[in-house]
UniProtKB/TrEMBL annotation:
This is Uncharacterized protein. PANTHER family: 3BETA-HYDROXYSTEROID DEHYDROGENASE DHS-16, SHORT-CHAIN DEHYDROGENASE/REDUCTASE FAMILY 9C. It comes from Phaeosphaeria nodorum (strain SN15 / ATCC MYA-4574 / FGSC 10173). Gene3D superfamilies: NAD(P)-binding Rossmann-like Domain. SUPFAM superfamilies: NAD(P)-binding Rossmann-fold domains. InterPro entries: DUF1776_fun (IPR013952), NAD(P)-bd_dom_sf (IPR036291). It comes from the Eukaryota. Pfam families: DUF1776 (PF08643).
Amino acid sequence: MDEEQQVLGEARADVRPLHLDVVDTFGTQEAIERFNETLARPHVAFSGASPHNLSLKGVILVPDLIFPTGPVETVTPELWSDALNAKVLNTIAVTQALLPTVCESKARILMLTPSIVASLRPPFHSVETTIVKALEGFLASLRQELGTLGIDVLQFHLGTFDYSHVGPKHHLQTRAAGSPHAWPATTRTLYARNFETQTRAGLNADSSGSPLRELHNAVFDALVQRRPKSVWRVGRGSVAYDLVGKWVPDSLVGWMMGLRRVSLDTHTAPKLEDSVQSWEKVEASP
């Protein structure tokens, strides 16, 4: 409901919220019916203008972009369940609810997902890698189904974007960084140093992003082009990291990210306090 209030806060006649509670089947059907009535009802753009009807050109799906990070053993089943339900099942359910309207209007479906982590498949990002690949698989199958009806299904692989002109500077590649302080002692000993190194590398790499205008223009083109391409790569790093993930060996990618092998011999393992202190430096960095 926070998102709905933000939309209402815009106070614009041409921007309206569409609340879909996919758990409530009856409520979802009612919401879709109201949406269809909006499309069928004549609208007046401004005082004195002739009434006209709206046409649905496309549905843009943007799943939640915040993902937990950390070693697999620290990601609880509850976190996995929440992430899969919120980002995969909810996205599929919303798509299913809108499909009849999409087919009737011959509209397009666009899905926007982060691509850098999914392309590189780095350690400590199992949740994001799994979810993005699941969404890509779903969309690929849906593309084949709707392609028989002449309906385009488009995938946007997103890099990083600079929001400095519209608010606080951050990026679409958003991750909920876990803290080694919450890990079991053995896990911290084994993973904290590499986790801290990778986190620092990610912060340095995300120092800048593409102008948000590039994404705006790409989405507009995808909606209006006569024969749009099926896959769009937009944002800093979306093309380069895709090539790296496809052609560069995983071991070399890990080395470039600063990952190093950790000995399982407790006598030669890195000191726990060293890794924790390094992580504290990362947390304190701007």
